[in-house]
Amino acid sequence: MLSQSVASEIRDAISAGEFMPGQQLSEVKAAERFSCSRNTLREAFTELAAQRLVERIPNRGVFIATPDADYVRDLFIARAAIEPSGVLWGEFADPAALIKLVTSARAAQENGEDQEVSNINQRFHRALVASLNSPTLNAQMNNLLARMRLSFLLVIPRYPTLHAEHIEGNIRLAQLIADGKREEAAALLHDSLLRTREKMLAVI
């Protein structure tokens, strides 16, 4: 359906950080940007509202979701359930590429490219779930990463080193996967997600 395609495009834009939490979405401008009718756009908004990416406020319009503590808790419960499963049972055809990806975050950090550090982190975590070769889980992860981006946009101004603190941990995790130490890697990831949740809850 066209509305699902439009919803996917908006979700990708949210995941890329193109919309801020609480930002109002103009139907006219959004319909122009995503080349669709306003009826199709409204159907897309309904789908995105169900995924907690936008919020409809009666008599005011549609707004990008603004994460709160419960939003972040729910998000990390889902991530902690899905991502370690990828580490344990996923198929990693090229573990060296995974290591290369996360290692590239070092150079991005040294160059002050904070957005790129964030993007690398997202690509890494998406790859963990993609290793399971499940379209259903991939769709869920796309939604979770879009919600993560909104959460990070609120937290990073108050905790600017959050992404940088995960660079070395991600490298260690990728190396453990490459070495076949799946259970150790899954435990490391699970603990890292829980620690990140608490750090974010402390400042959100």
Automatic annotation (TrEMBL):
SMART domains: FCD (SM00895), HTH_GNTR (SM00345). SUPFAM superfamilies: GntR ligand-binding domain-like (SSF48008), Winged helix' DNA-binding domain (SSF46785). Transmembrane segments: none annotated. Keywords: DNA-binding, Transcription, Transcription regulation. Residues 1-67 form the HTH gntR-type domain. PROSITE patterns: HTH_GNTR. GO terms for molecular function: DNA binding; DNA-binding transcription factor activity. This is GntR family transcriptional regulator.
